[in-house]
Amino acid sequence: MFKVILVSVLVSCAFAADLVQVLQDGGQTTLISLVQKAGLASALLSGQHTIFAPTNAAFAKLPQSTLDALSKDTSALSKILQYHVVDGSIPSSAATNELQLTTLSGQQIRFNIYKHNHAVTIQGSKITEFDKKTDNGYIHVIDTVMMPPEGSIVDLVVGDSELSTLLAQVKSANLVQALQGNNLTVFAPTNAAFTRLGSNVINHLTHNPSLLKDILLYHVVPHTEYSAGLFNRERLGTLDAHHDSIRIHHSGSNFYTNNGRVIKADIGATNGVVHHTIFAPTNAAFAKLPQSTLDALSKDTSALSKILQYHVVDGSIPSSAATNELQLTTLSGQQIRFNIYKHNHAVTIQGSKITEFDKKTDNGYIHVIDTVMMPPEGSIVDLVVGDSELSTLLAQVKSANLVQALQGNNLTVFAPTNAAFTRLGSNVINHLTHNPSLLKDILLYHVVPHTEYSAGLFNRERLGTLDAHHDSIRIHHSGSNFYANNGRVIKADIGATNGVVHVILVSALVSCTFAADLVQVLQDGGQTTLISLVQKAGLASALLSGQHTIFAPTNAAFAKLPQSTLDALSKDTSALSKILQYHVVDGSIPSSAATNELQLTTLSGQQIRFNIYKHNHAVTIQGSKITEFDKKTDNGYIHVIDTVMMPPEGSIVDLVVGDSELSTLLAQVKSANLVQALQGNNLTVFAPTNAAFTRLGSNVINHLTHNPSLLKDILLYHVVPHTEYSAGLFNRERLGTLDAHHDSIRIHHSGSNFYANNGRVIKADIGATNGVVHLCLRCRFGSSITRWRTNNINFIGQHTIFAPTNAAFAKLPQSTLDALSKDTSALSKILQYHVVDGSIPSSAATNELQLTTLSGQQIRFNIYKHNHAVTIQGSKITEFDKKTDNGYIHVIDTVMMPPEGSIVDLVVGDSELSTLLAQVKSANLVQALQGNNLTVFAPTNAAFTRLGSNVINHLTHNPSLLKDILLYHVVPHTEYSAGLFNRERLGTLDAHHDSIRIHHSGSNFYANNGRVIKADIGATNGVVHNVESFKLYIIFPTGQHTIFAPTNAAFAKLPQSTLDALSKDTSALSKILQYHVVHGSIPSSDNKFDSTFTSITMLSPSKDPKSQNSTRKLIMVSFTS
Hints:
Layout: H1 19-25, H2 29-37, H3 41-45, E1 49-54, H4 56-61, H5 64-72, H6 74-82, E2 85-87, E3 100-102, E4 108-114, E5 119-122, E6 125-134, E7 137-142, H7 153-159, H8 164-172, E8 184-189, H9 191-197, H10 199-206, H11 209-217, E9 220-221, E10 235-237, E11 245-251, E12 254-257, E13 260-269, E14 272-279, H12 284-287, H13 291-299, H14 301-309, E15 327-329, E16 335-341, E17 346-349, E18 352-361, E19 364-369, H15 380-386, H16 391-399, E20 411-416, H17 418-424, H18 426-433, H19 436-444, E21 447-448, E22 462-464, E23 472-478, E24 481-484, E25 487-496, E26 499-504, H20 508-511, H21 518-524, H22 528-536, H23 540-544, E27 548-553, H24 555-559, H25 563-571, H26 573-581, E28 584-586, E29 599-601, E30 607-613, E31 618-621, E32 624-633, E33 636-641, H27 652-658, H28 663-671, E34 683-688, H29 690-696, H30 698-705, H31 708-716, E35 719-720, E36 734-736, E37 744-750, E38 753-756, E39 759-768, E40 771-776, H32 783-786, E41 799-804, H33 806-811, H34 814-822, H35 824-832, E42 835-837, E43 850-852, E44 858-864, E45 869-872, ...
Parallel strand pairs: 1-7, 8-14, 20-26, 27-33, 34-40, 41-47, 48-54
Antiparallel strand pairs: 1-2, 3-4, 4-5, 5-6, 6-7, 8-9, 10-11, 11-12, 12-13, 13-14, 15-16, 16-17, 17-18, 18-19, 20-21, 22-23, 23-24, 24-25, 25-26, 27-28, 29-30, 30-31, 31-32, 32-33, 34-35, 36-37, 37-38, 38-39, 39-40, 41-42, 43-44, 44-45, 45-46, 46-47, 48-49, 50-51, 51-52, 52-53, 53-54, 55-58, ...
């Protein structure tokens, strides 16, 4: 294919434009104005220079007073401007971190390179645009005007009255010389910062010079750090003796060093940079205390001292030394406890969350906490004794002889209030009083044998307790509240010397565990419908005697039943009793005892089955999802379910026999002798209805009838050897079946529907004694293959079909569809072109693999790694590996039309490619285009016409050049449009193996700049894409050249009068064009350009086009960013 290339003049600013002109073109009008005012324009035009050029916005940041002063003082203005200019051409590639350059003002400026955010600064000003090349240097655009520093860091401190205390301390510590070093960053505390330390601290430092020196050096970083390069949570090593680090923190437009806010940043010095800081510790933790507490402490300094000492521990303890339950003795003599919660990475100390760790000081560590720790008033027993709201709990603890047990260490107690006990009623309290072992177990169910503060508790967490069965409490969060089981915690984190107490108001924790029976717990849980039906069926007394486990439907579950069913049950108490008993099992069965496919015998004598689905953590009982587990009662467990379980009417076979909609399935099952197989246990059957079989057609049914082994295999493909209820099926799940190949059914969800393969399940979860049945509207066991039963295609044996979707057929012109409906022979050939002998899964596909179809023609796989596309004869495969009993189906998005011949045949047969054909013959390339796996970008006649007769004649008389140009349009592998991506480069067959650049714009794609007007024309040996235009060619002398090519938009910037004049004066035009061409091949790597250049040899027209002496070369250039 030919490339149509437009080569033109490049923008004026980058070619022979001087520094001043480029600044003008770049819009730096303020800088230009000031340069002219300072009389520096001529200086910038002589010799090589590099300018760090502030934008207009950068100058606008300066105070107006500064601008006014500079406009009056041209000497000062000149000095500042010269501070932005360096002798020599310095590209960005020459910059290194801390590199210093001497400016025209004689002062130095420093590069800093920050890798984390790719920022580069010069004297702290961020460079926003690099390497604007001019004829006498470089321009780098910066976002801030650089003001020459007034001296070294020490000079800055001496000259700033706000740093006088710092200056005194620096002198006292003999650090003046140290601050004269190079490449330093100083975080300079202001006088106000020192004042906050207090006179005692200042005096202490004055008398401890080594400590003072170390503290001051902790404020000095041994490299230059401007604010443009500092990032949140960065740590900067300092010069103190331990090389401790300062932690940077950003908050809005402010940044902080540790907790010290920087109030003035980026004060440049000749040997580094200074940032002013002021220290601002947070008071939020103290603000959480009641005002009355704060007032009392301000009056009682002894109590205040004790609380403060409670926050201090002897020794340096970093966070790395903390372990869970580690106890530390404080200066007050009391202990505080670390707790580490891995799930949310929280670490607490006596329940207060540590929000910032390891603030290193010269004599220890500081860890910041979010709450003031109040020393506990005693042990857990002491707290219960001292709280009148827990008096009933205290009485029960004493009655059960548990006082000693609650004196243990590292305990958490969920303490029910008096109101919680009152809700149980006097009968329950009396019952507990006379059953001390039961009372003890219930009370120990409220005790967790490790410390659990609220900061570490997470939603749905389960905490093992000290009761005899080690049952667990379930934590639940709702808004700002949290619950233990269903008991709301009304007061959390009450510290004790041996653990923590959480006070609970009432809930399942109390009502379910304190000797409440099954019926009472159901009532408390709101299962009023179930309670009403239990009472109607006379089962309440049965549920009160012995241990039971109830699978309890919610009111909403009963509401799902048809009203007619509810009405019938209310009249037939025997049937109602049987259904309710079907929900009850003898014995206490916690959720921890459940295993997948475990079957339990109910009070009705029938069995129900647990199923556990790991992927979504669902647990079902007879297909009903358990929504709440382990509601413990004094005589068993309750598990809440979302659907009423209806006892099955028989086995899977019984269900099929009894359903008139499955009569065809029944006949086929009997025909295949599979009745016994369907009597197995734990089966799932996707049962096709009569309508599903009808869709297959009588031919298929007859074929199956006469092929019993095939029929058997197809039927077993509908049977899964384990129980799969809809609650556990997930999208794209694959279920292995009982067919001979253990093929899998693919589950698909769409809205409220789910599908087995593509067969919609119209009735799900029909329980049977040995499994579950799902009714399917459509059979998918080979119907996709038999769908192609039209016409002479023998589907006995293994086949692979590339199956177009309905939408694919809809893409065909109606006239084509009409013609095929009349010509069954042609239709058969097209359909056979989509079918290959043998089972070919996607894993067998390789790029350029060719398969022979039933029509005798070949189709080709192409695999495009960049977008994971796979095509067959250019049609994209949208769904792979639909397995059938006799092969595979791969779904494609386009109907494949058999090619009419080779690439040459296509060119010969297309009148729009007659000029291309003539040129191919002239260059003796017919044989070359007969090769295999080729892609041709074929220029139409119109494309050639655009070249003009001179170029055509010239090519005709230069066969080697013509051949190379034509081969530039041929790619030596198959490239269909489905696999071409934007900015892709395709290597060609021309002598230099130059590449074509693919470009996408909307629904169009281009080869170089030539729009493809007809894509994916299949041939027996590859594919053809027709292109509508060439790029124009410009002729230049023999040899290697580099062209700087202006866009159309660049020419459009010229005044119309200039364009008109050039069109009349070809001599002037030639001179301008030659001004854009340089001898030699100059890639971007040599000059930091962002374009790549590819050249091929071409001939220019001359006075005698046939003269070899006048041979010239035409350079064809493709620009890419």
